[in-house]
Amino acid sequence: MELVCPAGTPASLHAAVDAGADVVYCGFRDATNARNFPGLNFSRDELRNAVEHAHKHDVHVYLACNTYPQAGIEHIWHAAIDDAVAIGVDAIILADIGLLRYARDRHPDARLHLSVQASASNEEAIKFYHREFAVRRVVLPRVLSLEEIAYLNSRIPVETEVFAFGGMCVMAEGRCSLSSYATGESPNMNGVCSPAAHVRYEERDDMTVSRLGDFTINIYDQDEKVGYPTLCKGRFRAMDKSGYLFEEPTSLDVTGMLPELAKAGVAALKIEGRQRGKAYISQVVSAFRASLDRIAEGKLAEQTSLNTLSEGQSDTTGAYRRGWQ
Amino acid sequence: MSGSYPSFTPFLLASPLIRNAPKALTEQICRHAMATMHRQHKAVFERVAERESFALLIAPTDLDLKFYLKIDPEHPELRPVTNQTPEPVAARIFGPLPALLELLQGKSDGDALFFSRTLRIEGRTDLVVALRNALDGEEIDLRSAVSNSFGIANPVARLMLGLAETLYKQLQHDMNRTAATLTSSIEKRLGGLEKRASQQTEALARLEKSVQRSSRRTQYSPAVSAKDDFALPDHK
């Protein structure tokens, strides 16, 4: 299985290459990708140098252009696709059908991948994207079980890529409006979920209060781990009880089920975290590289000890193994 | 943060020395550090202050000293501040000096430090995130930067820094052991108390459920309900 790793800066891309990535995915420094954080992402020149560096080490580079264009300024997204092709990236990750059509018509030789933001989770949807836009790979939403992934792989004519490590989403990828409700900006349109400009942390005695816009998202006791305040991972009070109503702040880690994912026909494993630092990327990519190499040698992969890096500092296998059912 | 305890690192032991160091010397070191940083990593300042210049307060929790950091593409500034002269800043960053230095060099993950509460942030989160991202995009090597400052004495400085790092690690190890010894009896007692509290919480939850069940039986018993709703009036 191909190891697809994140990079938010050129230094992170170098770290991913050094740590054993097969592919590094990144985005331009604007709203065309779903990690549009301040100080993050690549200029055109930086991406050109990054691609050159990666290719020297036999590592591929994918460009994420996976937000939905806003009416009247589609040219920003079109320019991202044109420039990515001119720079020589190995694939473009897209979600919007208008952009897929644009890329297919303007750059028929470009390899197109379907972003998780498109939420294609069934056979007919995936076949539609393949038939209409010649999509060669689909990044599956994090709602599918291992059995469903194996079934899909036996029925569809494209490769599948699944999330292997990192922050979880509330599993309404490409359709979630929670961030927009709280801040007016969303991952789908602006490329950023819960933008940092709307985030505040306040110290109250021994407690830390996290806020997003006008909403209090969580109040942490002194001995609790802190998280980034997204509405989906907020702790709220309902019916006289307080708790994580939507989702707990925990991270995905599938190290223990890599052989099963390979057997299910998965072509690539994606590590989440373009917004994270190069120390995170080095550690996570190295751990997964070692696990995949062990499996390739016919040995069992050991469970990683990466949970100190994850939000909530705990991990889950998410929907792949639905332990709650 | 006024009520929190200082971080237990070797820098804490050096606090009296640092606190009583001549102000002019501390200011000179800060000026030199910032000039070196600006010369060698100008991209950080350009990237992060793309939209606006801003100031931060950096507060190492193991030093009796705070720093005023102004991020400006052309005229950045780093200087010590005293509690008596608070200045308006966009955000404040609190954390032990070793963690802050590792973060500066991209050796630690900022999010992980933050999730574990090693670092704390107040104020404009977006500016802190932008600075973190810009710093992470550079290859910053403090040891080289410091030893290069000594010019032709660079090899000697490098050797001294190596020795200082070894000493620092030994000291940190010893301090951790001392802290563990001092707190072990309290931790044991706390562990026992937590266990008892947990058992009592469970017992209370069981009791609560049992009361709820019994209350439901009393209120919604079909027999009682049927009698109330459908029994004929008693004309006797």
**Uncertain regions spanning at least 5 consecutive residues of chain A:** none
Number of helices of chain B: 10
User: What is the end-to-end distance of chain A?
Assistant: 28 Å
Helix content of chain B: 55-70%
Q: Per DSSP, what share of the residues of chain A sits in E-state strands of 2 or more residues?
A: 15-25%
CATH topology of the largest domain in chain A: TIM Barrel
What is the terminal separation of chain B in angstroms? 76 Å
Number of separate strands of chain B: 5
Please tally the β strands of chain A and state the result.
15
Strand order of the largest sheet of chain A: 1-2-3-4-5-6-7-14
Overall mean pLDDT of chain A: 90
Order of helices and strands of chain B: HHHHEEEEHHEHHHH
Number of helices of chain A: 9
CATH class of the largest domain in chain B: Alpha Beta
What's the domain count of chain A?
Answer: 2
Rg of chain B, please?
A: 29 Å
CATH topology (level 3) name of the largest domain in chain B: Nonspecific Lipid-transfer Protein, Chain A
CATH architecture name of the largest domain in chain B: 2-Layer Sandwich
What share of residues of chain A is helical? 25-40%
Description of the structure:
- The complex is a heterodimer of chains A (325) and B (236).
- Chain A is built from nine helices and 15 strands.
- In chain A, the strands form three sheets. An eight-stranded parallel beta barrel of chain A has the order 1-2-3-4-5-6-7-14, surrounded by six helices.
- The longest helix of chain A has 19 residues.
- The two termini of chain A are 28 Å apart.
- The model of chain A has no long low-confidence stretch (mean pLDDT 90).
- Chain B is an alpha+beta fold.
- In chain B, 61% of the residues lie in helices and 11% in strands.
- The radius of gyration of chain B is 29 Å and the shape is elongated.
- Chain B has a five-stranded mixed beta sheet.
- Chains A and B meet through helix 1, strand 8 and helix 9 of A and helix 6, strand 5 and helix 7 of B.
